[in-house]
Amino acid sequence: MIIFGTRGVKSTLSQGDFNCPQCETTKAYKKKKVTRFFTLYFIPLIPLGKVGEYVECQHCKGTFIPNVLNYEEKKNNAAQDFLAEYEKAMKHSLVLMMLADGVIDDREREMVIKIYNKTSHHDMTSADLDQYIAEVEASPDRDVSKYLKGVGPMLNGQGKEMVIKAAISVAASDGHFDDSEKALLAEMAQALDMTSAHLKGIINEITAENPTFSDN
To answer: Which residues of 178-212 are buried (b: 16+ CB within 10 A; e: fewer)?
Structure first.
C-alpha cells in the first residue's frame, strides 16, 4: 500500500532581535518559511511551492506578518534621522549664541564643545568648532530657527528646556548676558514654540542657581 500526500515544512530564513508587539519589549525572533512538500510514506520529497512566511517571537511564541520587522527598521531610521537633526540644531544654536555679542571668548568655546559632546553621539574637537564657526561667519543666513523648527515638534517640554539652558550656559560662560544674547534666546524660544513666560522662568531659575551669573 503506497501512502502519499502533502504537508508543510518549516525552515528558518533569518533571526535577530525585534520589538515584539505582544511582549511590548525587545525579544529574539526567527523569520520562518513554510514550504509545501509532496510526501511519500510521510517523508517530504518534492517541494510544491512556498505557502508563506512569518515571524515568530522566541519568548511568547507569537507569530506576526514579516512586515513587523520593517516597522522596527523604519522606527530606528526615524530615530537616527531625528538625532542627526538634533545634533545639527544644537551645534548651530550654540555657535550662534557664542557669536551673538561679536566676541569669541575661550570660555564660550570650551562650553560649546563640552555641551555638544555631552548631548551628541559625535565628539567635536577644537578644530571642528573652528571650521564650523568659519562656515557660519561666511554664511549670510544666520537664522537660529533653521534647524530648531525641525526638531521642536518632536521635543517634549524638558527637551526644549535643555536646548534653551544649553544656550544660556554658553552665553553666561563669559560672565555676561547682554541684549544681543537675550534677543537670540528669544528667537530660539519662539522657534521651539515656547512662551515668553516659560523662557523668563528658565532664565530666573538659572540666575537663582548661579548667583555669580550677571544678566547685565
So the answer is: beebeebbeebbbbbebeeeebeebbeebeeeeee
